[in-house]
Amino acid sequence: QFHRVAVGDHLLLGGDNLDLALAHLVERKLTNGSRLDPRQWSMLIPACRHAKEILLGATAPETYTVVISGSGSRLIGGAMQAEIARDEVLQLFVEGFLPACTLNERPQKRQSGFQEFGLPYAADPAITKYLATFLQTHMRDSDAGSRPDIVLFNGGFFASPVLRARLSEMLERWYRPNDAQWSPVELRNDRLDLA
Fold first, then answer.
1. Potential cystine with 138: which of 6, 85, 111, 120 (Cβ 3.0-4.6 Å)?
2. Sign of the torsion angle spanned by Cα atoms 17, 19, 22, 27
3. d(Cα 139, Cα 159) in Å, to the nearest integer?
4. Cα–Cα distance between 99 and 167 in angstroms, integer?
5. 94: Cβ–Cβ under 8 A, 6 or more apart, which residues?
6. Residue 15, beta-bridge partner list
7. Which residues pair with 66 in a beta bridge?
8. Three-state DSSP state, 30
C-alpha cells in the first residue's frame, strides 16, 4: 500500500518554462540582441517547443535550426533562422532548471504577482532546490527517512531521458554518501501526463 506522508508546494515550473527559456536564447541569435515583434514571437514559441523535443530526445542531433518567417511582405524570402547546438540547450536546461546543489540549499524567495488558479509561480527556476527543501522539511528521524527510494516522474518536463537522469544523479549525490550502493528506482511510466 502507498501512504502519503508529505505533499510539497505546487510549482508552476515545467515544459512551458523550458520553451520560453529556449525562445529567449534563440531570439538573441535571430536578432543580435533586439526583440522580435509579437507575431514572430508567437511563431517562435512552438518552434522552440519542437526544437526542445528533438534536442532532448534519445537520438538527438548535435545541432538543430529554428526557422520562423520574417516580417512584412517578404514572408518566405525574409525567413529568419538560427542554429542551436544540443550542448548549449542541455546547458541551459540542466544548469538552469536542475542545477547541482546541496541538500541544504534553498530556492530564492521573492514575491511574484503572477498567479494561476491561486497558485504562485515559482520565483526560482531551480527545481532541484525546491526538491531539496521538500526532502529536508519532511526528513524524519534519519537521512534515510527522507530518501526517496522510488521515483515516479510525471509531466512533459521529464519526457527527456536527460532531465530524468539529472534528477536521479542529484538524488544519488545527496544520499549516496550514506549508502554507496544506493540508487533510486525509477518506476516505468509510459504516459507522463497521467502519472
1. 6
2. negative
3. 28
4. 9
5. 162, 163, 166
6. none
7. 82
8. helix
User: pLDDT tens for residues 9-61?
Assistant: 767 678 888 899 999 999 999 998 789 999 999 999 999 999 999 998 888 99
Query: Is residue 27 a contact partner of residue 35, using CB atoms and an 8 Å limit?
Result: yes
Question: Between β-strands 185-186 and 150-151, what pairing exists: parallel, antiparallel or unpaired?
Answer: parallel
Beta strands in the chain, from DSSP E residues, in sequence order:
63-68, 80-85, 115-116, 119-120, 150-151, 185-186
Burial of 52 from C-beta contacts in 10 A (0-12 / 13-18 / 19+): buried
Phi then psi for residue 118, to 5 deg, are: 80, 0
The answer, as to whether pTM is greater than 0.90, is: no
Q: What is the pLDDT of residue 1?
A: 72
Beta strands at 63-68 and 150-151: parallel, antiparallel or unpaired: unpaired
